[in-house]
Amino acid sequence: MKKLILLTLLASFAQGKQFVVAESCDRTPVDVNTVPFEIDPNEIAGFYLVGYEIVCQGPTFYWDIVCCDDEGDSYILEPISLPKGMTWDAAKNQIKWTPPTAGIYYVKITVTDDPNRPCATRATGKYVWAIQVPEKNTPPFPEMRPVRN
Q1: Which of 56, 88, 108, 141 could form a disulfide with 81 if both were Cys (CB 3.0 to 4.6 A apart)?
Q2: 42 by DSSP, 3-state: which?
Q3: Which residues lie closer than 8 Å to 65 by C-beta, 6 or more apart?
């Protein structure tokens, strides 16, 4: 059976910085035990967990979704479920989001290869990313204490 998998999720901050979540076509799902925040098993049931992000409240983030396919086929990306306020640009395979509040969010998409193939030979995968938006950090508070000799 043919395998189809997402290659990477690239995130760009509004300031133009960019980082890569995954660099290869590794077909091993992310082990939920290695994610530094709690993943809701009901949210990822039936999906292939391909990555996670920790982002701050405030700035706008842009994610480019890039795929790889064993046969090099073209593909179609379709969002299944996006967090509130997240937008999908199908022409660029890009999502845009300004995290509104702290919480854990899930980006769910399907990827189907080569729309020109007969239905029987088309492969579709269901993928999910988990995104944590932590509470805003408060600065440390200094305190003076008398020194006793």
Answers
A1: 108
A2: helix
A3: 6, 9, 10, 77, 93, 94, 95, 109
- Which of the listed CATH numbers 3.40.50.360, 2.60.40.10, 3.20.20.70, 1.25.40.10 matches domain 4-133? 2.60.40.10
Q: Length of the chain in residues, anyone?
A: 149
Please choose, from the candidates 80, 93, 10, 85, the residue with its C-alpha nearest in 3D space to the C-alpha of residue 45.
80
Tokens of 141: 């508070």
* DSSP for 43-94, written as a single string: HHTTSEEEEEEE--SSS-EEEEEEEEETT---EEEEEEE--TT-EEETTTTE
- Note the pTM of the prediction, 2 decimals: 0.74
Residue that the structure tokens 């982002």 belong to = 55
Coil, strand or helix: which one is 119? helix
The residues spanned by each domain of the chain are 4-133
